[in-house]
Design goal:
Blueprint lengths: L2 H31 L5 H13 L4 H8 L3 H13 L3 E5 L7 E5 L1 H23 L3 H34 L12
Amino acid sequence: MGDYSRDRELKEAVSQLRQLLKGVQGATAPAWLELDLSTGQLRTLFALQACGTTSLGCLAQRLSVGAATASVVVDRLVRRGFVDRSVDAADRRRLLLSVSTRGDELLTRLRQGHQQVIESLLEDLDDSELEGLCFSLRPVVRSMATLGDRQASAASAAVEAPSSPGEADLPA
């Protein structure tokens, strides 16, 4: 495949994937809009679920916010029953945070909404279309597995690269 043809195919693939993501988001938007939670509260819930039981400081670091900011958001989530606080058995001065049963149910419901929309789209495919889609998605899924490593390498290279032409030639 020539460069022009490959570029055209890449643009088409990106366009189709964007349409798919936009459609899934649109179909699940009503459930998200009914939440009555701020973006910060949702980010905190998802981050806390990913971390598991953790301290406020670790959660704040994960969210890239200060402990005071995280504390305000967590307090609201505790009041609403989405987050539990408990005393660390090893250090009674330390509080631990975890997603409550109510919070887990909410996050599961949100994820299931996406899954249901995708499943309903796939049910419309005939066997050969479904097989072709699975075949085509395998390399994309494999690529996703290494995306974090590639992004970290690119960020590291950007930090190490000279910021202006000729800077590498200057004495240290």
